[in-house]
Design goal:
The chain has about 350 residues and is an alpha+beta fold. It has 10 helices and 15 strands. A 5-stranded mixed beta sheet has the order 7-6-5-10-11, with helices on both faces. The chain has a 4-stranded antiparallel beta sheet with strand order 3-2-1-4. The longest helix is centred in the last third of the chain and has 32 residues. About 5% of the residues have low confidence.
Length: about 350
């Protein structure tokens, strides 16, 4: 997910300007034995941060932040649920860890401003999708990405038909059984065809409406299930976030690799489309001379409310990282979109490119 909204709240919080802002990034791992090394790597990054703070700050200014980082490093439960990457923002008594769904290079930054550009880069829309495993009377919900398939625990959506509706036809000769370890689920596989269809329609319409409320970030949703169930769901669904691709068999009958291959294909298509839309905006801004390339000028125009969005080219990072970090924070605070992009020369030849209003 994109972290910009959460970052606004963190950046708005007033704090002592004398306190150092600590930013740590590292790749992490979901499975043993690799994930056992993650807290050790984090501890080494903490030591680097402490060395940097000792050079530039009084010890009293960074004792509290070290305590918070040490507590996180010793939190075994936290490290047992790692993803592909981790970003940590810490200042004073506050510590904000961000699990990332793509690997991020190790980095340590200490200064007056958080280094949040990697959070934007690795939290781009498209790094995560949802997958709905459908049966005619129950469903399971998964978070899926290029590196993971994880079932979600949630209580917003009823997972079984009989949790919602009690008005089943008494003559439909209903059986009970189990799906994926859940007992007492309504099957209805010996009900009259028309009654089965009505029950399925009722449940699928409920799922579609519930997913629309649950999916606040409008993540793409992949459907999985029998060809019949997927087709029936599409017939009644109104949400505009369902992916064209689907797994036309129950999830339990496919491998994790098959799921990830489908996800990677979908994400590549989405990233390609996102890149084309952004390039079109860049070209249009150049043609209209509605651009600014100088970081100081961009900051000034942002204060005047004239910046529509900022592109930061990770291939040509501005050598003055502190100024760039301050500019990125300033724009995010004012609600201006900031995009971390990886563009070849000819598309974006400068470290920063602001599209003006």
């Amino acid at each position: 997910m994109n972290h910009a909204k959460e970052l606004i709240g963190i950046l708005k919080t007033e704090r002592d300007e004398k306190l150092p802002r600590v930013t740590l990034y590292l790749p992490t791992h979901r499975r043993e034995p690799d994930n056992k090394k993650d807290p050790i790597v984090f501890k080494n990054l903490m030591k680097k941060a402490e060395e940097l703070m000792a050079k530039n700050y009084e010890k009293g200014a960074y004792q509290e932040v070290l305590k918070r980082l040490e507590a996180l490093q010793k939190d075994t439960l936290f490290w047992n649920h790692s993803t592909e990457g981790l970003g940590v923002l810490a200042v004073g008594t506050e510590c904000y860890p961000y699990r990332l769904l793509t690997p991020v290079p190790e980095d340590v930054v200490v200064g007056e401003t958080f280094h949040i550009l990697p959070l934007l880069e690795h939290g781009e829309a498209g790094a995560e999708m949802l997958l709905v495993d459908l049966a005619k009377d129950r469903f399971r919900l998964f978070s899926v990405g290029p590196y993971h398939v994880r079932e979600l625990e949630q209580d917003e959506i009823k997972t079984h038909f009989n949790e919602l509706f009690e008005d089943l036809d008494s003559e439909s000769n209903v059986n009970t059984g189990s799906y994926a370890g859940t007992s007492g689920a309504f099957h209805g596989h010996r009900a009259k065809p028309e009654e089965v269809r009505k029950d399925r329609e009722k449940y699928f319409r409920y799922l579609d409406a519930s997913l629309s409320r649950f999916n606040k970030d409008r993540l793409p949703v992949i459907l999985a299930g029998t060809t019949e169930n997927v087709a029936a769901f599409r017939e009644w669904a109104k949400g505009d976030f369902y992916a064209k691709e689907a797994l036309t068999q129950p999830l339990e009958s496919v491998t994790e690799d098959q799921v990830q291959q489908l996800v990677q294909k979908r994400l590549q298509e989405e990233k390609g489309e996102l890149k084309r839309r952004r390039e079109a905006r860049l070209v249009a801004a150049k043609q209209e001379h509605a651009i600014s390339l100088d970081l100081r000028d961009i900051q000034q125009k942002a204060q005047e409310g004239r910046v529509a969005e900022l592109f930061v080219n990770t291939r040509r990072m501005d050598p003055n990282r502190r100024m760039l970090d301050a500019a990125v924070a300033q724009l995010i605070l004012t609600g201006i979109p900031v995009h971390a992009v990886d563009y070849e020369d000819g598309i974006l030849d400068t470290p920063t490119f602001a599209v003006l209003r």
